[in-house]
């Protein structure tokens, strides 16, 4: 069947139906531009269909500025502010926490995410509004569908479509106008009652059921992915990792241990060997006093360190002023005072030796205090002693 | 898009003598103020020279960049305007003159010229005066060379209509764009970033480029609209062409904000002692006001002023927004340069306005002088007809 006869048959079939529009096809973009600007003088409800975007068409059709930009702006800005409020609530009320030394409300750090939220919500809402309001989604029928007019305008022709809904529409006049503008094929397009009935709308059961399935499906998948799948192999919430776990057997090494001993003769970084560890503690004490001297100068900073360490680690037994007034209420025997003649006459190194190795009931404090801290404590003990027996120069 | 051909009617009209007179008047007044300032308030005059030089360098070379981008991208909207771009790009010919007042006073302006410490000693291989001058000569020389080549071919095409000229310029643009990127970065580092030589930022060059592009588009917009609305260009340049210029200004402002914010936020987040002082200086005292004003003027204002299509197609609103973004770029330069010399807070004197008058007067004189010799439209360009038929 040739195209012409087909069209005639279609017109005959449809002529009893309601008229949707009068359409005309043009050959060149210049012709359609001219036709659109002429049509815009009389008609409001008309449209132009072209196989590719024709620049300048907005002006030719007299469309003016589209309000869709305002939709994007308002929704984007609103969502940005809502999100800012959410961040503020999280970081100030719900879970205040200091990150990287910044204040609780950390605006510069939020700007990238606010920007992205604005773009995302603005773009998605614009598309959704175009879908639902402008295109009438989920409507899936349109009188222009499957017409020869639409076939040609999506291929090589430029079409002008004057809609019957326009107040100024008159069938004969519209036809005359299109022919006068130089349209090659002028055809009426009718509504198809069968299609109109079967078309989808927001309330049609098919659409509602499909939407429900899609929603439930996406929600289920998201729930499964975020709450179940991450705990399944091979993810197992990243618990199974190819790594050596401390204190467990391991087949890699010959001795079957995962923690290997250091090579014989290894010295720890910063280790200072302590030479005065003899079998006879008294001799060791004497040797230390003879051959060691306090390496730290007496400065405010050193005394401050010594005071801090003394008060946190020594004062529980020795008392804040070294008088042997233990705060332990007899739970541990109180040591003698540090202001005794013996301790006062000791060399610095003797005190250092006692802190390092312990004496009688006092354990070694070498693990709790570093070498420098111990010497600083020695200085502080000296300062305490002098505070009870000041020299004349100190009083001035 | 129009497929029918129309013959191009361009009749060269001379600009009114008044325009040239105004230009010379403003320029001479500015020069007088600047000269007096060098005697009375020398430091202010010296650092204002840096701002003047960098402003004109940015406007000139970014106009040249717009010419190159048109060739490279095959853009048609800017073809009817390209001669105006070329005329403003000829600013690069005069840049050595504007660099001259800075060079004798480098000891007063740049710390690295006379002091050294552990950091500066390591930078000395780059930051030293002989190499600085070599770089400056090289950068300005390259720009002048490229301008001469673009301009001479474009002018030759006016009479011959030789399409080969367009092809040559397209190929040259592919070379110019990377050269431009490196040279404008180097210039920004040399003249602006080295004012505080201990500080560094890899975003600095691109930030200066973005600001300069905005200012250049502002100057181009003002020139195009004033010439076209008074009928000195060709029939067919309409709001859609202005729209494209406005689009560029809008994009430039947003791009500037992006680079400036990235630079600021990364430094703020990392909180490293060698990076933060530059921003601390600009967040102390009344400089904080300028910093906040810069965000409003350089980002929020253009964002809302230029986002609407009807504003970009309206010549009056475009003139206003063009002046706005030029002011924004000047504020940006002020914010970069002056805190180094006025750490307590911003101060203004007649000097700054004198230097602004020099820039304005110079650009007016440049256009009026060049308009005497050249056609204001590239009438031989094969893309001109399509450019005039450009619609959104």
Automatic annotation (TrEMBL), chain A:
Residue spans crossing the bilayer: 68-92, 113-134, 206-226
Q: Which Pfam families match?
A: ActD (PF11821), Cytochrome_CBB3 (PF13442)
Quote the Gene3D superfamilies the UniProt record gives: Cytochrome c-like domain
Annotated keywords: Heme, Iron, Membrane, Metal-binding, Transmembrane, Transmembrane helix
- Domain Cytochrome c, by residue range, is 301-385
GO MF terms listed in the record are: electron transfer activity; heme binding; metal ion binding
Q: Can you tell which superkingdom this protein's organism belongs to? A: Bacteria
What this protein is called in its record is Cytochrome c domain-containing protein
Supply the source organism's classification: Bacteria, Candidatus Blackallbacteria
